[in-house]
Every structure is written in C-alpha cells, then in structure tokens.
Design goal:
Layout (H helix, E strand, L loop, with lengths): L1 H31 L6 E5 L6 H17 L3 E5 L6 H9 L6 E6 H6 L11 H4 E10 L1 E6 L7 H10 L4 E5 L5 H13 L3 E5 L3 H9 L5 E5 H9 L3 E5 L26 E8 L4 H15 L4 H6 L4 E2 L4 H22 L5
Parallel strand pairs: 1-2, 1-3, 6-7, 6-8
Antiparallel strand pairs: 3-10, 4-10, 4-11, 5-8, 5-9
Helix pairs in contact: 2-10, 7-12
C-alpha cells in the first residue's frame, strides 16, 4: 500500500513538472533576458525643470548600462500624483519605472482625503539617486541674523510675523508648520503660486521669511538678495555650510529631500537587481556628481533595500507633521 501510494505521487509529480515549466518558463526566461526592449521612465514634472533634467541625464546613463533605451515620459500634475498612479497601476515587469521626488511619493498621500497610493505597498524601491532640500531664507536687509533671532521676535509678536512657501500643503509649508510647532511660535503662513513669487514678496518686504528649494536659495544668496538662516535637513548643506540645521538650532526636525527610482509593486527580484545595478553604474558616470552639484543637488546613491527604508520613514514623518498641523486635505 505504501509503495503504491508513493508510486502514484511520483506519477502525478512527473505529469505536473512539464505543466509547471510551461507556466513559469516564459516568465523566468523574460526575467533572465531583461531588458529585451525599451523602458519607460515616468517623470512627475513637465519638461525643462530640474527634475526633468536629472531624469534625462539618468535615463541616458541607465540606457548605456542596460543596453536598451530608457525613454522619459513626463506626466506632470497634482503634485506628482498623476505620474505615481500611472506607475502603481503599471505591469510589474520592469518596463515602467519612475524617477520621482520625495513629496510626490511620501507627502502627497497625506494631502488627499482618499490616499491615491501607499508608498510601502504600491511601489518597489530601486534606489535613491540624489538628495536636495529646502532652506529658510530672510531678505538680505533683514534684521534677523540667526534662526534664534527670528524665533525670539516671533515669540514676542505672536501672529504678526509671516512665512511664505510655494503653496498650501507643499514641503515648504509643512516645514514652516513643523518649525512653528517645535518652537512654540505663531507665524502666519502665506502661500504663493510658486517659489519665484514668494521670493519676490520676501525681497520686497512683504514677508519676514520664506522656504525655498536649494536651487533658488543658492541663486538668490549668490545675488546678494537673501540670507540662508537654517536648513530643515539631517545635516548641513554643502551649498550653505554656515547655515545650521534645525536640530543644531534646537528644533527637533530634519529630513532630506531626494530623487530616486521606483517601479510598481511586485516587480521580480532579478529585475530589481538589474535596475539597481544600472542605477549604481549611472551614479559612477564621469561628471555626474558635478552636474548634480550645478543644480544644487548631491549625488547620494543607495541600495534598493536602503531606499525602501527611507521612503517608509519619510512617509511616516510627513504623516505625523500633517496630522500635527491639521493640513486641509483635498
């Protein structure tokens, strides 16, 4: 009886093996030959901006590494939501990836009544590529020389000082709200339609302070129009070495902005590893570090595993800030 049962099992297994090979063979071969055609890199900004410039430089470098074209597909709108929804819904075969930025994937879900995606569940991390950040500025003729000076004045004049950002729910807005909460001050937020408008208002004396990205802060400080008082980052920026981090100034908040590659959730591990290798190779391309520095970014590649941790951590941090601020969701 026992020998007969084993014999029947062996026969069933023998019949199943060819079927298994038939079902899984093509998929395994596809992974082994990946990539066999062009790859689409979805970018959540319009052509011409810094994110687009980085994406195209990176796409060219990854094309060389993968021996297949990497084609940039710009899908701007809704703070990056349109692009990221497209990527989340794409087939997880490695032929749709995204060069995205922190706010699009880690902040936007907290600004929607119905989150369009979850960064830890709907995407597969490939690797971070570069870091950047925001800076707290005052006009060049401002009486405030340090963040301490500014906060001292804010405590003495609750509700009378103002800070500008590039819009409600933006990284600049939430950085300002985090500063207010941590320092226990009342500073009025004034949203603008873009950073340039906020800078004009700051220089013109309509604002006491403003948050901008590093690129704008670099250009305006070099022009002698603004001073950088501090950066809400994990460490000092090489672009403003004399500006302390918030933590150094006694404010327990700090987070780095970044650009990185993600793919749809469920992308096979061999494909992830191939893309991860291509990203690392692109980061080593001669002149890449200098090119990024010229755009006020820092080359900072990571593994897929490390980038996954960064995404989840930043998502959780922005969630706490959004809840603390009570940001209005749309």
């Amino acid at each position: 009886m026992h020998k007969s049962t084993n014999l029947r099992r062996s026969r069933r297994l023998a019949l199943l093996l060819p079927l298994t090979a038939l079902l899984w063979g093509p998929a395994l071969q596809a992974e082994e030959s990946y990539p066999a055609r062009a790859i689409t890199m979805v970018v959540p900004t319009p052509p011409g901006g810094d994110t687009d410039v980085v994406a195209r430089r990176l796409a060219d470098a990854m094309s060389q590494a993968l021996k297949q074209p990497v084609v940039v597909d710009n899908k701007p709108g809704a703070g990056g939501q349109i692009a990221m929804q497209q990527v989340a819904a794409a087939k997880p075969d490695g032929y749709t990836i995204s060069l995205t930025f922190q706010a699009a994937i880690a902040l936007v879900p907290h600004l929607r009544k119905k989150p369009p995606y979850h960064p830890g569940k709907d995407f597969t991390a490939i690797g971070r590529f570069a870091t950047t950040g925001n800076a707290l500025l005052v006009a060049a003729d401002s009486p405030y020389r340090t963040l301490g000076d500014l906060l001292e004045r804010a405590k003495a004049s609750p509700g009378k000082m103002t800070f500008g950002s590039w819009g409600i729910g933006s990284g600049g807005h939430l950085n300002g709200e985090a500063l207010k909460a941590a320092a226990g001050v009342d500073i009025v937020h004034v949203p603008y339609k873009g950073t340039p408008a906020a800078i004009v208002a700051l220089i013109g004396g309509e604002l006491d302070m403003a948050f901008t990205g590093y690129a704008m802060a670099v250009s305006q400080s070099r022009a002698g129009k603004v001073r950088v008082l501090a950066v809400p980052a994990t460490k000092r920026s090489p672009h403003f070495p004399d500006a302390p981090t918030f933590r150094e100034a006694g404010i327990p908040f700090g987070m780095d902005g970044w650009f990185g590659i993600v793919a749809p959730a469920g992308t096979p591990k061999p494909v992830v590893e191939r893309l991860e290798q291509a990203l690392a190779q692109a980061a080593r391309e001669p002149g890449m570090e200098e090119r990024l520095a010229s755009m006020s970014m820092t080359l900072a590649p990571t593994s897929a595993e490390e980038f996954a941790r960064i995404i989840v951590s930043d998502y959780e941090t922005w969630g706490r800030v959004a809840e603390q601020v009570g940001v209005e969701k749309n």
